Amino acid sequence: MIIFVCRLRKRELSLYLQIIKTGAGNFMFREKIHAYLLVFIQFACLIYIASTGPLLAKGVNGLLIESAGIFLAVLAIFTMQPGNFNLTPRVKKDGKLVTTGPYRLIRHPMYIAQIIAVLPLVVDYFDWYRLAAILVLTADLLVKIVYEEKQLHKHFPGYDEYAAKTKKLIPGVY
Q1: Is residue 173 part of a domain?
Q2: Contact 3, 105 (CB under 8 A)
Q3: Taking 60 as the threshold, does the pLDDT of residue 21 lie above it?
Q4: Tally of structural domains, the chain
Q5: Domain encompassing residue 157
Q6: Which position among 3, 69, 90, 141 has the lowest Cβ density within 10 Å, counted as fewest Cβ atoms?
Q7: Is residue 5 pLDDT above 50, yes or no?
């Protein structure tokens, strides 16, 4: 597999071509690339939706839904605590399993919060590309959940029990 690696050396951006051989030593590197690719797709979709229309929904109902999504995201981040929070779906070495706040009902409140917050923007200012962006965002978050759940099961001994009591995104449904 051939990849391009960017390195910053003495204020110059140099592009190196690096040949990666398959093997156990490169497994962690490929996992990191996978994690960052998922985050890149996520943010690309969110930025596209935010940059191609107004940031506030038109009607009261849309504003309430959008506000609920933003509130849930902020609540989830504060419950997770900044030191435990990670943008990538990788578990921090010293991370703690959070099962309080919105995490007592669903395992991935930050992901559903993003969908809730941008859905009214796509509906109110509809365009096929914006619809495609939210569909790609949703698919990306679902893949990210599968990836993250594998990490969480490995890292936290009590995760199986926690997963049995909670749903991934929608309380009581999924």
Answers
A1: no
A2: no
A3: no
A4: 1
A5: 2-165
A6: 3
A7: no
pLDDT digits (tens, 9 = 90+) for 129-139: 999 999 999 99
Q: Which two tokens stand for residue 144?
A: 């990210």
SS3 for 9?
Answer: strand
Residue 174 inside a domain? The answer is: no
Q: What per-residue confidence (pLDDT) applies to 99?
A: 96
Return the SS3 of 7: strand
Global pTM? 0.83
Residue ranges with strand state E in 10-77: 12-19
Does 170 reside within a domain? no
Q: What is the pLDDT of residue 39?
A: 97
CATH for 60: 1.20.120.1630
List phi, psi (to 5°) of 127: -160, 145
Indicate whether 172 belongs to any domain: no
